[in-house]
Amino acid sequence: MQASDRFNINSQLEHLQAKYVGTGHADMNRYEWAVNIQRDSYASYVGHYPMLAYFALAENESIGRERYNFMQKMLLPCGPPPEREDD
């Protein structure tokens, strides 16, 4: 692998991270990463009707109620953010 190949791979990674929020970046902490994963999962459940119907059936709730519950869980999927240490 040459230096130009490494630069090209890094520039492609930076482009993906700038284009898509969920791919993360070097300064992302564990909490932010977990929130992105949870929100992406809930959005997928709401967006795919068969999956939403499966969850509604499994929890014995209506599909609309299950959609509402998933949308509410997207607000704070991993609880409140941890305390940050300001340097």
Automatic annotation (TrEMBL):
Organism (species)? Pyrus ussuriensis x Pyrus communis
- Extract the InterPro entries matched here: SF3b5/RDS3-10 (IPR009846), Splicing_factor_3B_subunit_5 (IPR017089)
Q: Which PANTHER family match?
A: SPLICING FACTOR 3B SUBUNIT 5, SPLICING FACTOR SUBUNIT
What superkingdom does the record give?
Eukaryota
The GO annotation for biological process reads:
mRNA splicing, via spliceosome
What does the record list as coiled-coil region(s)? none
Q: Which family does it belong to?
A: Belongs to the SF3B5 family.
UniProt name for this protein: Splicing factor subunit
- Look up the record and report any one GO term of the cellular component aspect: U2 snRNP
Q: Name one Pfam family in it.
A: SF3b10
